Amino acid sequence: LTQLFRPLDMLGWVYRNIRQGVIDMASMFDLLDAHAEVRDAPNAVPLAIASGHVRFEAVHFGYDPDREILKGVDLDIPAGATVAVVGPSGAGKSTLARLMYRFYDVTGGRITIDGQDIRDVTQSSLRGSIGIVPQDTVLFNDTIGYNIAYGREGTTPDEIAVAARGAAIAGFIQSLPNGFETRVGERGLKLSGGEKQRVAIARTLVKNPPILILDEATSALDSRTEADIQATLEAIEHGRTTIVIAHRLSTVVHADRIIVLEAGRVAEQGTHAQLLRKNGLYAEMWARQAQEREAEGGEEVPAE
Ligand code: ATP
């Protein structure tokens, strides 16, 4: 009976924490990890990062055995490049990110980083090498400094300040009555969506990972904030292999390569200009989003 109820206890714990707003995606992963079937191989070795070259080779995956979500995905993400994944809702974009972080294992094919199958390396070394800026950052009920340092143990106040500057949130923090010691979260200062995202970016800078996954926020930020955050993200992408899971095409124009995923398959790939010339799914999505932006009275985004 205890066996039966333990997962329920766990769910209750997760639920209470989410309600209190004190859990974020990375700790959620760690937590679920305790129950996940994904385990270190007996002879797992630490991931040796050379340059951060990520490859998906004929990757198949389904959450349920009778419903395949990814149907043979090949991706080549060169070291240091920024690759954006776009496509209709439900195409499998976020699933790619979950597989990279090894939240689940592929059911066919493989994912490699610098030639090493991620199933052959320790999960701690894999996850230590990947930084995630999630869609929605939930803060701990603690100081803003603690929330930034959460990315790594033993972080010094200087490192926190440098990360805050890199995430363009240092000025805001200095304007708070207690600076980095100001309490945030449910029982403290409430931060806006944009400010929370900047805390997530600062956290990632503290971690300083060679590989980045940016899961673009679906929730609307005002266009000025979005443009500011976009500029900050582009700055931190330098020198790291970056995968952007994008919902708005206007944010991926600068990517070195754009992958268009459709129903679990790569439908098209290329640069923004190449994909527009192709006049396929991407060009269609671009035209539709441009119309929507116009209808909302938003700013024009130059096509090329
Ligand atoms: P969106 O743009 O709407 O975020 P996406 O392309 O990121 O979509 P995914 O989140 O990767 O899509 O989901 C792909 C498919 O897998 C969807 O049909 C979804 O319902 C399904 N799916 C996602 N997570 C799970 C899960 N934990 N269990 C079962 N099915 C899931």
Automatic annotation (TrEMBL):
Residues 54-288 form the ABC transporter domain. The keyword Signal does not apply. It is found in: Cell membrane. It is a multi-pass membrane protein. One of its GO terms (biological process) is intracellular iron ion homeostasis. Keywords: ATP-binding, Membrane, Nucleotide-binding, Transmembrane, Transmembrane helix, Transport. One of its GO terms (cellular component) is plasma membrane. One of its GO terms (molecular function) is ATP hydrolysis activity. Signal peptide: none annotated. This is ATP-binding cassette subfamily B protein.
